[in-house]
Amino acid sequence: MSNSTEMPSNPIKAGWESPSNIALIKYWGKHGKQLPRNSSVSFTLSTAATRTFVTIKDENRTGKVELDFIFNGKENQAFSTRVEKFLNSICDEYFTFLKKYSIHIDTSNSFPHSSGIASSASGMSALALCLCDIENQLNDKTNFDENFYLKASEVSRLGSGSACRSIYPEVAVWGHHEDIPGSSDEYAIGIGHQIHPVFKSFHDDILIISAGEKSVSSTAGHNLMEGNPFAPVRYQQANQRMKSLITALKQGNISDFGKIAEDEAMTLHALMMCSDPSYILMEEGTLSVIRKIKKFREQTSIPVFFTLDAGPNVHVLYPDEVENQVNSFIQDELKPYCNEGRIIRDKVGTGPEKIS
Ligand code: PMV
Question: How is residue 163 annotated by DSSP?
Fold first, then answer.
């Protein structure tokens, strides 16, 4: 899916807003060039998002990417270095224009980075969409067809694996699975059209238990899976759970969905605890919240479930019809565990949008 382009006479600019996503079957373990050890499926979110603008302008004769990078209105050396490295790694194969012009990137998040909310997913997908958009403009193309989104997903994956799922509305699958036609390790595909309507308005309230940097990054966590004795059986389990979860998503089976989502969260963190060296990303508040959610569900029969990312924050999942009851429960019983009472009230969303 590589491509090259011609010289622009004026600055060319593209802006996209792209959401985060929450995995229901987790991608945990990778090989080669950011390829997954198992397939995964996620809800695309709505509120937690990144807005990115990329501008290419003056000619660049340095032979490498020349980047000027602004994050949340300020320079950010750590992010700039990461993005520059990423752009250098993809320019020859995917976007030759990246070395021909100076690049300006202005990006901002609606949520704290490195807090277990996948800021790299929204960030890398927004950046990839901008790059594909600029390539379109250089080639005088005006439409965003299927190949546009496939390329954006593939490029996002190279930046951060889970980012490739953020490209699509509602629900996305990444990683080849025998039951899912069109699924691939190289890019994600959207399966929102196959999903029962009850999941299209599902809520995900993200309880910020801690907004600090994680002690072990996802990259380090994926790498530790290579030596984890439970890894082979985990990958089989993930593929089995994919089958069951996709069925539940199609049928609108909320209790099967919730059980699998919770089991996946526990498995992810158990894998961390039995890595070598072992580590724990949950906090005390994470455990308290999990216990409270289970108890509330048992006592009320209200369908509310949790999942976790690679971090301490808890994603509270529930259908729209129980919003009021769950909101009261969260305010009364879970909010005290949140850092400064912070909760991001998110929902399944309609996917990235071009900013005009
Ligand atoms: O895309 P990465 O490398 O940040 O890894 C994401 C891993 C999980 O969030 C834990 C699971 C997933 O599938 O998103």
Answer: G
Sequence-distant (6+) residues with CB within 8 A of 347 are 45, 46, 47, 201, 202, 203, 204
User: Are the CB atoms for 98 and 91 separated by under 8 Å?
Assistant: yes
How many other C-beta atoms are found inside a 10 Å radius of the C-beta of residue 213? 11
Angle between helices 218-225 and 254-273 (to 10 degrees): 80
Please tell me what DSSP assigns to residue 27.
P
Q: Give the number of C-alpha atoms closer than 13 A to the C-alpha of residue 209, restricted to the C-beta side.
A: 22
| Ligand 1 centroid to residue 40 C-alpha, Å | 9
Q: Kindly state the DSSP code that residue 320 receives in the 8-state scheme.
A: G
235-246 per-position pLDDT tens digit: 999 999 999 999
Beta strands in 119-202 (DSSP E): 171-174, 188-190
- Asked if the model's pLDDT at residue 286 lies above 50, the reply is yes
Domains and their CATH numbers in the chain? 12-194 (3.30.230.10), 198-347 (3.30.70.890)
**Which pLDDT band holds residue 211 (cuts at 50, 70, 90)?**
confident
Amino acid at site 167: I
Distance CA 209, CA 354 (A): 32
Answer yes or no: pTM beyond 0.85: yes
CA distance 105 to 74: 11
Q: How far is the CA of 340 from the centre of ligand 1 (A)?
A: 26
Nearest ligand 1 atom to alpha carbon 161: 1
Q: What is the whole-number distance in angstroms between the Cα of residue 202 and the centre of ligand 1?
A: 21
Phi and psi angles of residue 142, each rounded to the nearest 5 degrees, phi first: -115, -10
